[in-house]
Amino acid sequence: MRIFDPHIHMTSRTTDDYARMSAAGVRAVVEPAFWLGQPRTNPGSFTDYFDSLLGWEPYRAAQFGVVHHATIALNPKEANDPRCRPVLDLLPRYLDKDRVVAVGEIGYDSMTPEEDDAFERQLALAVEHALPALVHTPHRDKARGTRRTLEVVAASGIAPERVVIDHLNEVTIELVHGSGCWAAFSIYPETKMSPPRMVEILRRYGLERMLVNSAADWGVSDPLLTLETAEAMLKAGFDEDDVDKVFWRNPVEFYGQSGRLDLSAVAGADEPTFAGSSIKRGGE
Ligand SMILES: [Zn+2]
């Protein structure tokens, strides 16, 4: 079994996690830029973080046979902090870099006017840089946040198939399904989705444009919940090809739209890869 975790914050994890993931079949990850818990007080903290997502973390991952790409953005929570907002002006030079496969995480935390502005500006950047967008949905007031998210995405002019709406559940999938956007689910040990609930959703809505991630970070989370969900799928009657679609081919298809997904280092990769190395852009 080969697993591609399309949303995981490895910066917050240890080498023990990389070793366990590698042994479980995780061969590729995408790490979205996010809120680090401790509020950042200036744009320099962001650029050091972005550089680490594009330099140090891929190096660390490679030591365990895991291919690492990133998504770059000003996250919804810190979009509210005037000290952090100048980061929006620094994004264009990062969005041109080889290992950046989407703009994200963007979207809503508390649905403030500042978040509206950062969300709209970053969707416009995604269009401008021909990148997909990874959209986080709020943990509070989720249905209203998801509805508003879909309205803003539709108004932005980005093609819906280039957008993934993340952290969905049984309620919000109803809103996203049929929108043309990709639907993503974060499997957490205590909150959000569990493996059995996820399997039920896949049974009900099918496997097209569906992504499943661990979203593991600095909170209570588990990078192996991807594997656990894959095993729950098999137990529930899905076959190996179904599991491969959800946990490998779907994330490859979604992030492959960036033209920069390079899986050539994946051992035994038998699927066509999307080598982005031919697209050399400035800044490297
Ligand atoms: Zn996240």
Describe the protein.
With 284 residues, this protein is of the alpha/beta class. The longest helix is centred in the C-terminal third of the chain and has 17 residues. 45% of the residues are buried. The C terminus is likely disordered. Helices cover 39% and strands 14% of the residues. The protein has an eight-stranded parallel beta sheet with strand order 1-2-3-4-5-6-7-8, with helices on both faces. Strand 1, helix 1 and strand 2 form a beta-alpha-beta unit. It is built from ten helices and eight strands. Zinc ion binds next to loops.
Overview features:
single chain; 284 residues; alpha/beta; 10 helices; 8 strands; globular; binds zinc ion
Main sheet overview: 8 strands, parallel
Tally of alpha and pi helices: 10
Biggest sheet strand line-up: 1-2-3-4-5-6-7-8
Shape: globular
Number of beta-strand segments:
8
C-alpha-based Rg, rounded? 17 Å
The structural class is alpha/beta
Content of β-strand: 5-15%
What is the oligomer described by this structure?
single chain
Question: What is the mean pLDDT?
Answer: 93
Question: What small molecules accompany the polymer chains?
Answer: zinc ion
The low-pLDDT segments are 271-284
**SSE sequence, one letter per element:** EHEHHEHEHEHEHEHEHH
What is the CA-CA span between the terminal residues?
Answer: 34 Å
The helicity comes to: 25-40%
